[in-house]
């Protein structure tokens, strides 16, 4: 059962007070359209832990937030006075403090395999930014192709890694949830950019089937933003004035 609370709430900004956090309550500081923050939200949702989301305006960060994260980035996890940062570390921490719903396997080899898969698929986490560059700069011709090719190359490589229903086997694992936000954004931009090989598509049949399965799960629904709101944010972001409350 998904127990994520407050994911679709306005982003707090400079001058806004810090919301009190009750003892024993878990909180993720996030931003609705940030893929890195979405990793933590997805993982918490998949684990079924009750967690409160506090969204942060990354252009006008509240002064108190720098006490949580020295650089003012998201995500940040907080519970009982303990603060953990970084999107690749928070999920492992959540498995540690909520072991009854651990997603990472206890078997050392299987645990290592999940980290290896994430590392092998890592190109997708930077390649997708090329699509934003096309959107922002209205690139055409060779310049456009140069941004699309790394995305297609990354998808080609990950397609070969997809052996079962999920990267975690018969159910979504650590690698699945940490990769999800980047596939989401490639899928989101495929249509408005009229990509020659959109995602999902038959070119990446295994990954497309995977995407159909995982994006329909309740944990994904807890973190996904409506496409029109997400695109509105992207347009505002590349226009130089990000609307962190797009769609609310």
From TrEMBL:
Q: State a GO cellular component annotated for this protein.
A: cytoplasm
Q: What top-level branch of life does the organism fall under?
A: Eukaryota
Which controlled-vocabulary keywords does the entry list?
Oxidoreductase
Q: Which InterPro entries match?
A: Glutathione-S-Trfase_C-like, Glutathione-S-Trfase_C_sf, Glutathione_S-Trfase, Glutathione_S-Trfase_N, GST_omega, GST_Omega/HSP26, Thioredoxin-like_sf
Tell me, what is one Gene Ontology molecular-function annotation carried by this entry? methylarsonate reductase activity
SUPFAM superfamilies, A to Z: GST C-terminal domain-like (SSF47616), Thioredoxin-like (SSF52833)
Every copy of the GST N-terminal domain together lies at 24-102
List where the protein spans the membrane.
Answer: none
For this protein, the record's Gene3D superfamilies field holds: 1.20.1050.10, Glutaredoxin
What does UniProt give as the signal peptide span? none
Name the reaction it catalyses: methylarsonate + 2 glutathione + H(+) = methylarsonous acid + glutathione disulfide + H2O; L-dehydroascorbate + 2 glutathione = glutathione disulfide + L-ascorbate; RX + glutathione = an S-substituted glutathione + a halide anion + H(+)
Any idea of its EC number? 1.20.4.2, 1.8.5.1, 2.5.1.18
Protein's name in the database? Glutathione-dependent dehydroascorbate reductase
